[in-house]
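Hello,

Following up on my earlier ticket. Below are the two sequence lines again, exactly as submitted.
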Amino acid sequence: MSLLIVGSLALDIIETPFATRELALGGSATFISLAASYFAPEKVGVVGVVGDDFPERAWDLFRQRGIDTSGIEIVPEGKTFSWHGRYHYDMNTRDTIETNLNVFADFKPHVPGHFTSPDFLVLGNIQPDLQRQVIEQLDRRPRLVLLDTMNFWITGHRESLERTLRLSNALVINDSEARLLIEHPSLIVAGRKLQAMLAEGSPRIVVIKKGEHGALLFYDEFIFSAPAFPLEDIFDPTGAGDTFMGGFIGYLARRGAVTYEDAKRAVIYGTVLASYCCSKFSTEGIENLSMEEIVERFRALRILSTFDLEEEMLRSR
Amino acid sequence: MSLLIVGSLALDIIETPFATRELALGGSATFISLAASYFAPEKVGVVGVVGDDFPERAWDLFRQRGIDTSGIEIVPEGKTFSWHGRYHYDMNTRDTIETNLNVFADFKPHVPGHFTSPDFLVLGNIQPDLQRQVIEQLDRRPRLVLLDTMNFWITGHRESLERTLRLSNALVINDSEARLLIEHPSLIVAGRKLQAMLAEGSPRIVVIKKGEHGALLFYDEFIFSAPAFPLEDIFDPTGAGDTFMGGFIGYLARRGAVTYEDAKRAVIYGTVLASYCCSKFSTEGIENLSMEEIVERFRALRILSTFDLEEEMLRSR
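Thanks for your patience. The regenerated structure is below:
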């Protein structure tokens, strides 16, 4: 099944308590497409924009991972979008030091002709009007439209975001954003209310990411609680959420189906990819994984969360 | 297997965004013993202190649940310990408005003669010197000593707490307390380091409670990630942590064993009991449960967290 991803491509400055890196390859479309590439059965297409400073090593990486970059516009003499972030000691919180939109300021997504009928569409975290512009360029409704957003759009562009939500079947969002959007302290209530904001019909999928606490999947009337992979050391969490989304959608594209069982496994594959992402700087943790490494962590997550009701308890009733 | 519980008995004032209740039955030993009573095969013994204002309905409740109260000292003309707490809108955070130690100020635990050889011992959240005084009154080492503590003892009585930890095989602690005690942002690292502070030998059990995010069990070299029960409404979280501990130790006492599989199930039963605790005020949610209700939520938690590796993925390796 074909998969199209719209989002940012970036050259970031990342500061962690352990190291600082400049010109780190980043951006939502970068992480999503790299993660998805491990599963997707066809080429993954990316729509985005970069300056002509976007480095050859990035193009090489996309090529190696079989990612179709024909939808990435290159602005001559433009500078690529850049985010400068600093992580706190606990690695769970971070400050944005500076955001330079650069070529992203005038970005108008253009979907290449050979990608106007994707089976799966990911609308990475960009302005919700632009997300809808992508949908409008398609020849038909994708099987699944997966949406990401952030606090900036929730507080400043809510009406537009709600319109994009009504065109989407799936939303991946972190816990603080879910609470901000729904204004209810319970994540269970928030997940239910977010489902009601999506396009009508089935499936209606909401995934609430909780960082070190795992993720909650709301699929129609079902709820699935996924554990986090127990990492002792987090090296750089940048892009972990996007990587999660890439693993999630890539697995669904591979399956060509979006049943509840598929979606549960997709959450686990997303968790696996995100765990590899956090263990190295920038995209380095997800540039060259083997399927053995991926399946190994899938199994580890299953072992970590498996328990059974013993027979004695049943007899005692 | 016999089970002895030491802790507080209280008449609390609880304010939530929805209601206020005075003279609410509370205290760590109260919640622990009520929860444990659903599983424990023998009478559960409690050591603690109350004033003569401790109400008849509380004694009745203990009697109904088969709890041995002969170790509860009654101070004539004394007032029972009282905590006044106020929950914030999100129900995850609370302020202590007032703590009146009353008869608890001069409490010296006295273990009755018929309880000096318990198989399982729970040291509820009291001053760590007092916790050790209980151990010193025993005729033999219990099969398992389960410890609780709080930020007040961690910051103000660390050396004494560390001595009590070295006499314990199991610790139940919440995530913020674990980080406070270990001073490391990773709960995985914190869990490992807490295990190393316990008595030598096997098992070394640490359970980190994460509220709405479930719990992590560290059992020797194993880690188990337990989901939270997805409650849409939390009515009163007071005592949920103690109730968790009671379900946990009660199940182990019933089994008479502390294997890893037992400990995993014990975490799930603790989670089940805690979910019932939160759904009503004070002890009301855990006063009269049926084993059917308990097993029903155990099954729900299993369904909520079960996933499988599909065969297609294995073949694709």
